[in-house]
């Protein structure tokens, strides 16, 4: 018997797939925020140390928002063959779904770690999973959620907050450093650093000045001006081919879709290097601009937008993404530049 146990143990340790943590990312066909969904998938898949799947109640294509694109879920709830170690909840529309919420509560009861990205925190708050805990969310939603859920200790000074088995993040682009921090917990510092380097993104920095994100006169005017001219907005194609970089595509699609001056979509349907299937519009618009997603750092897309439409528009996009680019261009530059922007 001892020899049989030794053989079984050897087989188990020789198969990394058996030992890898399972992380599932929820999605809803009716609408799921682009970076909220793709960033955790891309970061964890790139590491090679985590099994990660995008799951939904059905295999219907998931509409990415903003942007004009869809992705295919990789499994349904019913198709999962084992309990996930981590469940990630991006911002989805509608915010409430009884089947999805019941499934999530059951995973929490069974001990899964829960990670809510951006306004996905509302799903947890509504289900009572944040009661008595510290949490954060997108800056624009904080006041409303603080009023609706007073039993939660809402904070503005962190890009992500871990309170026991629950993690919440600030807005949209906080999904990238928070996913790297999760990867560090699951696979270690060395794996996290190597993954960040390959993706071309800074190492995670948790400190955050969320109170500095607010709609001032300049941002309001930029946004209104964009909306007023949306009817003549530029058609922007994000170039992808099979094997494309998931994270670079997502940050480009998301950022160019928020300018109020352009409509962004993938140049064609393709499958990423991590087997994420992206579906383009059935009838592709005629592109006035083709953009190349070069790396996953949102600063790259924001700089490209500044070059195309001016710094005011890039600042407005950074505000909606809750990205530190907003702080960098709003304030006087520090005497010593920071080592990295999250």
Automatic annotation (TrEMBL):
InterPro entries named in the record: Class_I_gatase-like, DJ-1/PfpI, INH-QAR
Top-level division of the source organism's lineage: Bacteria
Keywords, comma-separated and alphabetical: Signal
DJ-1/PfpI domain mapped to chain residues: 25-182
Transmembrane regions: none
Protein name, UniProt field: DJ-1/PfpI family protein
SUPFAM superfamilies: Class I glutamine amidotransferase-like
Signal peptide, first to last residue: 1-19
Source species: Caulobacter segnis
């Amino acid at each position: 018997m001892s020899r049989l146990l030794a053989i079984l143990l050897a087989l188990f340790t020789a198969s990394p797939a058996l030992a890898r943590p399972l992380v599932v990312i929820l999605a809803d066909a009716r609408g799921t925020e682009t970076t909220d969904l793709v960033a955790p998938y891309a970061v964890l898949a790139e590491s090679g140390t985590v099994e990660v799947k995008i799951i939904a109640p059905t295999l219907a294509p998931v509409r990415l928002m903003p942007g004009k694109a869809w992705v295919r879920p990789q499994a349904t709830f019913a198709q999962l063959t084992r309990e996930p170690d981590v469940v990630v909840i991006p911002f989805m529309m509608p915010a409430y779904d009884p089947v999805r919420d019941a499934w999530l509560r059951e995973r929490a009861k069974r001990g899964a770690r829960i990670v809510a990205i951006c306004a996905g925190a509302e799903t947890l708050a509504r289900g009572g999973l944040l009661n008595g805990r510290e949490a954060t969310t997108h800056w624009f939603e904080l006041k409303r959620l603080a009023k609706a859920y007073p039993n939660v200790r809402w904070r503005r000074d962190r890009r992500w907050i871990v309170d026991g088995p629950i993690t919440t993040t600030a807005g949209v682009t906080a999904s990238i450093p928070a996913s790297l921090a999760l990867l560090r917990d699951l696979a270690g510092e060395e794996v996290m650093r190597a993954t960040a380097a390959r993706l071309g993104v800074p190492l995670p920095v948790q400190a955050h000045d969320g109170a500095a994100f607010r709609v001032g006169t300049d941002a309001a005017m930029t946004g209104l001006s964009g909306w007023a001219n949306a009817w003549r907005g530029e058609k922007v194609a994000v170039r992808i081919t099979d094997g494309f970089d998931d994270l670079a595509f997502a940050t480009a699609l998301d950022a160019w879709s928020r300018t109020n001056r352009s409509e962004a979509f993938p140049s064609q349907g393709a499958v990423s290097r991590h087997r994420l299937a992206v579906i383009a519009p059935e009838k592709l618009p005629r592109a006035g601009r083709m953009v190349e997603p070069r790396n996953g750092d949102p600063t790259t897309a924001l700089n490209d937008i500044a070059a195309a439409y001016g710094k005011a528009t890039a600042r407005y996009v950074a505000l909606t993404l809750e990205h530190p680019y907003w702080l960098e261009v709003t304030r006087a530059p520090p005497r010593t530049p920071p080592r990295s922007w999250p």
